[in-house]
Design brief:
heterodimer; A: 271 residues; mainly alpha; MetI-like fold; B: 318 residues; 69% helix; disordered N terminus
């Protein structure tokens, strides 16, 4: 009985692994399979061919898409985390009347779904003249509730003596934040940065709505262009394009999986 | 959620130690701290006010108008858009599809996610690898992986067709078949979310009190009774959390739909988020888009509030 259940458990483990991994495997192998071989189904590629990547690179302005995605992702994540750090420090360490009420108002913004703000925010950036600009893509997304919440929770676990000592020594709050609190919050800061980077890199609907010219599109929006030009006929090129988007995230996930998993599931345990 | 905080626990002004170098009075120091607080929260406050709260107000206003988002005048029509929407069977069909899609993904995620979590909670070789790999789909681009799934669902050369043929099933045309496209989307969403749900459940399972199980086992409870009488009830806060997060996520499903079906074939996969997008950016009908967005907002707020009340009761109950 015992060995049988153990075997069953390992069978289950393999099934889960295969189900989760096969689409990623299929993406990677199809991207290096030549078009004629794609039509003769094969589980394992017999040779590695890069023609799909050449086709894919020619079917959309990838250099521009990449540049835009990198700018929007890095700048957006950086600004968002700075905004989050400043406000989380205020909520954790500074006095203010009715601070809890203000905090609740901030948290409430988390309940506003992205789909609901789509049209009004488009009209707002249109009124600001920000359509087809980096500001238009980045700024509406840098307000931060969840990262602020996680950082504040973390800051409140720091030993009180450390920050008190820094204040008594005459250091001002910016110095305390920079020299004491941030170094002690490094794991949480890394977590919120990585999560922000992944979210901004994958973001699709807002860049789609806030831009209309090819020169301002990001990679996920570029996926639509590629589908229009290559979709349903040249699967290899479409897969190669998807690889351009997916592989950077897979690399980041491979390096920082602990932080990403902790950051994304934090709401369950810390709410 | 607890809102106790550091600074209010700090000693009152009178008890503040005299600070070297700054001869400012406690009152001036306090005022300076208030101003600093405002300065620190200002960027976030402005951003959230303009890009999260204002849109709700603006949507509310636009939902009472009939505007093409271009003309300089915005004609006020009162509740006509709502009357129109709720009198339209197509809109009810959109809501119905959204609930079906959301419900199917939630149920699938809860069952499969809990099963995977209980499996990964055993001491098995390689379980960390499986945990990581099964979480990965959650963070991969929806448009990119959506195209991969389109290829997998391809009725001529798709992986799904080949696999189903191996077990003797002639698969449907999936995304081009209006009665199957929705189930294709459900599968993609399950693939994207089961690993995430499993990790959340694992955290819950690891917090289980072992003495309860031992006591129950001594009383002669079998594994099924343990699961039903202890594991499930103790996990109910996690279940609630996962349910709400998944409902909010599926109501907002967009990127996968955009790349895989465009809401079609016909209207077969037009859920509420796609409906709102279509009204706003394809039909240029700000009134219906605003009304649709507000309906969605109210539904999600109600669900979140229900969860919050449940959690509060739990905390008191404990």
């Amino acid at each position: 009985m015992k060995p049988l259940t153990t075997t069953l458990k390992y069978v289950g483990l393999v099934v889960v692994l295969v189900c989760a991994f096969v689409p990623i495997y299929w993406l990677l192998t199809t991207s290096v399979t030549s078009p004629d071989k794609i039509f003769q189904f094969q589980w394992f590629p017999t040779s590695v061919e890069w023609q799909n990547y050449v086709d894919s690179w020619a079917s959309a302005p990838f250099a521009t898409l990449y540049k835009n995605s990198v700018i929007v992702t890095l700048l957006g994540a950086l600004i968002q985390v700075c905004v989050a750090i400043l406000s989380s420090y205020a909520f954790a360490f500074l006095r203010f009347p009715a601070k809890n009420l203000v905090f609740m108002l901030f948290l409430g913004a988390m309940m506003v779904p992205g789909t609901v703000v789509l049209m009004p925010n488009f009209l707002t950036i249109a009124a600001l003249g920000w359509v087809n600009t980096y500001a238009g893509i980045i700024v509406p997304g840098v307000g931060s509730v969840f990262a602020m919440f996680l950082l504040r929770q973390h800051m409140m676990t720091l030993p009180h003596e450390v920050t008190e000592a820094a204040k008594v020594d005459g250091a001002n709050h910016l110095r305390v934040l920079w020299n004491v609190v941030l170094p002690m919050s490094r794991p949480m800061v890394v977590t919120v940065i990585v999560v922000a980077v992944v979210e901004k890199w994958n973001d699709f609907v807002w860049p789609l709505v806030s831009t209309s010219t090819d020169s301002m599109r990001t990679l996920p929006v570029g996926m639509l262009m590629i589908q229009d030009s290559e979709g349903f006929t040249n699967w290899g090129a479409v897969m190669a394009s998807a690889v351009f988007i997916v592989v950077p995230v897979l690399v980041v996930f491979f390096i920082a999986q602990r932080q990403i998993i902790a950051g994304l599931t934090a709401g369950a345990t810390k709410g | 959620m607890t809102v106790t905080d550091r600074s209010s626990a700090a000693p009152a002004d009178a008890a503040d130690p005299p600070t070297r170098g700054t001869p400012a009075s406690p009152r001036r120091r306090r005022r300076r701290e208030y101003l600093l607080f405002l300065a620190f929260i200002a960027p976030n406050a402005v951003l959230l006010a303009v890009f999260a709260y204002w849109p709700i107000v603006f949507n509310g206003y636009l939902s009472l108008t009939s505007w093409d988002m271009l003309s300089p005048t915005i004609p006020f029509v009162g509740l006509a858009n709502y009357a129109d929407m709720f009198g339209d069977p197509d809109f009810w069909a959109v809501l119905g599809r959204t609930v079906l899609f959301s419900g199917a993904v939630v149920i699938g995620c809860l069952i499969a996610g809990l099963a995977v979590a209980m499996l990964l909670n055993q001491k098995l070789v390689g379980r960390n690898l499986v945990r990581t790999v099964s979480f990965a789909p959650h963070i991969l681009s929806g448009v990119a992986m959506g195209t991969v799934w389109l290829f997998i669902f391809d009725p001529q050369i798709g992986l799904m067709k080949v696999v189903l043929e191996k077990v003797g099933i002639a698969g449907p045309a999936w995304m081009t078949d209006s009665s199957w496209a929705m189930w294709g989307l459900v599968l993609v969403y399950l693939w994207k979310n089961i690993g995430f749900v499993a990790v959340v459940y694992m955290a819950g399972l690891q917090g289980m009190p072992t003495d309860l199980y031992e006591a129950a086992r001594l009383d002669g409870a079998g594994p099924w009774t343990l699961f039903r009488r202890i594991t499930l009830p103790l996990l109910s806060p996690v279940t609630f959390f996962v349910t709400v997060v998944t409902i909010v996520g599926t109501f907002q499903a967009f990127d996968v739909i955009a790349i895989m079906t465009n809401g079609g074939p016909g209207d077969a996969t037009t859920t509420i988020s796609w409906y709102i997008y279509k009204q706003a950016f394809q039909a240029l009908d700000a009134g219906h888009a605003g009304a649709g967005a507000l309906v969605m907002f109210v539904i999600l707020i109600a669900i979140t509030a229900a969860q919050a009340r449940f959690m509060e009761r739990r905390v008191h109950y404990r």
